[in-house]
Structure formats: C-alpha cells, structure tokens
From TrEMBL:
Belongs to the class-II pyridoxal-phosphate-dependent aminotransferase family. Histidinol-phosphate aminotransferase subfamily. It comes from the Bacteria. HAMAP family: HisC_aminotrans_2. Pathway: Amino-acid biosynthesis; L-histidine biosynthesis; L-histidine from 5-phospho-alpha-D-ribose 1-diphosphate: step 7/9. SUPFAM superfamilies: PLP-dependent transferases. It comes from Roseimaritima multifibrata. This is Histidinol-phosphate aminotransferase. Gene3D superfamilies: Aspartate Aminotransferase, domain 1, Type I PLP-dependent aspartate aminotransferase-like (Major domain). Its cofactor is pyridoxal 5'-phosphate. Residues 28-348 form the Aminotransferase class I/classII large domain. Its EC number is 2.6.1.9. The modification N6-(pyridoxal phosphate)lysine is found at K219. The lineage of its organism: Bacteria, Pseudomonadati, Planctomycetota, Planctomycetia, Pirellulales.
Length: 356
C-alpha cells in the first residue's frame, strides 16, 4: 500500500480554522464576549430534559424533531412544520445550506465585516467567497444584490446576518426582499439575533422561494450549551435540505428542551425586555465615556474609541476577569463587541472602561 504523506483534501492545507470566541473553562470570568444570554433558560426546559431522560434514551430520537417543528411553526405563525428543518445549532444549519448549494469551485457571497464562519464553510467545500463591504454607517451597497462583476456565474449562495454581527445593525424586510429579488442565487438571512430586533424577515419566506431564514436557540433562548438551531424556507426547499442532514442530527434531550423553549413565549418577551433595557443603558454610558457607539438591535454593542487602543482595553479588562470581544477587520478597522450581560456584569465592565 502506498502511503501519501498528506492524506487530506488539498483544500484543507490552504485553509485557516475558524476560531470561536474564548470559552474559558474554570476561573470566574464575567463573559461578555460570545453573546450568550446572561439569564437562565426558561424553567420548562429543565423539566423537559429530566422527563425525556426518565423516559429513557435507548431508542433513536425522532429524525425530524416533529414536536419541535410543530411548536415552532405555531409560535412563529408559519403555515406548517414542513417549513422548518432543525439542526444541532444554527452553525450546523449553515453547514447544511452550504453543502447543499455550494460545490467545489463555486462561490459564496457575504458582507464585510460580518460573521467569518461563512468563509470557513466555503473553504471546506473548496469553494471561493467574495465580500461586499458595508459603508461606514453600516449600509450595504447595491453590489451585494448583483451578479458577480467578472461575469462568471459561479455565485451560488449569499449570506446576510440580520441583525449583523459585530454591528448589531439591521436591514428592513423591504430592503432584504429587494436584495433577494435582484440576486442571481438564493439568500440566507441569518437571524441569530432577530428576537432582539424591531423587525424580522419571516414573512418573506412565503413570498420568495429563494429566501432561507436561520434561527438559533443559543442567544434569545439562553441555550448556547444545548446546540439547537433551525432553518425556515418553503417546504420543497426544506425537503431538499433534509437529504443532506445526518439521520439523527438532534438528540432526544435537545429536541425535548427546544420544544419546551419555543413554547415559552412569555419568558422570551420578558427576557428580551430586560436585555433591551440593559442595552440602552450600555449605549448611553459608553457614549458618555467617549466611545462611538453603533445603535444595536442585538444583544451586544459595537463600540470604537477615537483614540484609545481597543486591544489594550480588551487586555486590561481580561486581567480583571472580564472578557469582551476584540475584533480587528483588516483594511476596515477594529473595535470592541460587548455582549449585553446582567446589569451588574455590564456595570463592572463600564466602570473599568471609564477608568482607562
Ligand atoms: C451565534 C451565531 C450563530 C450560531 O448559533 P449556534 O446556534 O450557537 O450555532 C449563527 N450566526 C450568527 C451570526 C451568530 O452570531
């Protein structure tokens, strides 16, 4: 048997791994770096996990998470459960979308600065990606909705996080529909933070078969540790995506928990109110102490200081056991993305920033 020195696909050698935000294990950090919810999940979630565990785990789970899809369709006012595909976190959903639509040598489009993971997903496929830069007030140039300028029609999929990260800014449903109608390929609207925003694009899915909306339970439902996300699209699109997913991509405990979570509408409304109130205070205080703050519709705030070093502020906060996200976008600039924590956590962070 001949042994090649590198058994991996050529595309891997060229590829940089995606680096998620720091997740310190142990130590008492105030974590304001990965947009987790600072409050515990809806109480019905724990009860549902215990009850599913007591029922036993010797059988495979429901392959399509039907109980979850029924509850989510009802909560979101969708025509039916066949408009939803569930996944092991919305990151898995994004992977399924890319595997389903973007082949080797084809291309994916994303705005910049935004969620870098999309580029990694293209790299894994051996596909290319191209970026459209937001302008300085986070408006997205019309080029984002146009065919590729080189005339080659390799573009297969466009990603739009809405609200965007790191900015927390949103495009209105009208703006998103207009982009979808002009694009020569489908559009994934990544609504990881939509529960914190004033608008969302759910209704557009019924008007346009080329719109896919992704949601996660990690942020607004306080379940980042559970790993549950889903995509909403027209039923014939969902059926195609179903061919790509693993047979049992969601486990029985997470299906039970996610079903209970999306049934907890009052909890969600209350949690979102608290986060928004704290966000408003954060924005005011950061502005008072000299930051340029981008008004946010998510559970984090993007801020830049006109003359202090963002990197140094990040490092000083870390020494005091407070983690925020320092982000540096080459040729664009850097800044701090600070998640909305509890009032106490946010006050501790703001107090130190004010002294720097
Ligand atoms: C957090 C986040 C996700 C990932 O959500 P998971 O369900 O935890 O995988 C997807 N997209 C964006 C823009 C996010 O910020």
């Amino acid at each position: 048997m001949s042994v090649k020195s590198n058994p991996f696909r050529a595309t891997l050698a060229k590829m940089h791994p995606y680096v998620p935000g720091e997740q310190p294990q142990g130590g008492k950090f105030i974590k304001l770096n990965t947009n987790e919810n600072p409050y515990p999940a809806p109480p019905a979630v724990t009860a549902a996990i215990i009850s599913a565990a007591q029922a036993g785990l010797q059988r495979y789970p429901d392959p399509t998470a039907s109980s979850f899809r029924r509850q989510a369709a009802e909560t979101l006012g969708l025509p039916g459960p066949d408009w939803i595909l569930a996944g092991n976190g919305s990151d898995e959903i994004l992977t399924i979308l890319v595997r389903a639509m973007v082949g080797e040598g084809e291309r994916l489009r994303l705005p910049y600065p935004s969620y870098i993971l999309y580029r990694t997903l293209a790299d894994i496929q051996g596909a290319d990606w191209e970026q459209t830069e937001f302008d300085k007030d986070w408006k997205l140039p019309a080029a984002f909705g146009e065919a590729s300028s080189d005339g080659e029609q390799k573009l297969r999929l466009a990603f739009l996080p809405n609200p965007n990260s790191p900015s927390g800014t949103v495009l209105t449903p009208d703006e998103v529909l207009e982009i979808a109608e002009r694009l020569p390929c489908p559009l994934v609207v990544d609504e990881a933070y939509a529960d914190f925003a004033e608008t969302n694009c759910l209704k557009l899915v019924e008007q346009n078969e080329n719109i896919f909306i992704t949601r996660t339970l990690s942020k607004s439902y306080a379940l980042a540790g559970l790993r549950f996300g889903f995509v909403i699209a027209q039923p014939h699109r969902i059926a195609e995506l179903g061919k790509i997913k693993d047979s049992y991509n969601c486990d029985a405990l997470s299906i039970a928990a996610a079903t209970a979570a999306v049934g907890s509408s009052e909890w969600l409304a209350d949690n979102v109110q608290k986060i928004k109130a704290t966000r408003r205070r954060m924005e005011q205080k950061l502005t008072e102490i000299g930051f340029k703050v981008t008004p946010s519709q998510a559970n984090f705030v993007w801020c830049q200081h006109p003359h202090k070093s963002h990197k140094e502020m990040y490092e000083q906060l870390k020494k005091s056991q407070i983690l925020v996200r320092y982000m540096d976008f080459p040729e664009w600039g850097d800044g701090l993305r600070i998640s909305v924590g509890t009032d106490d956590q946010v006050d501790a962070c703001l107090m130190l920033l004010a002294q720097m």
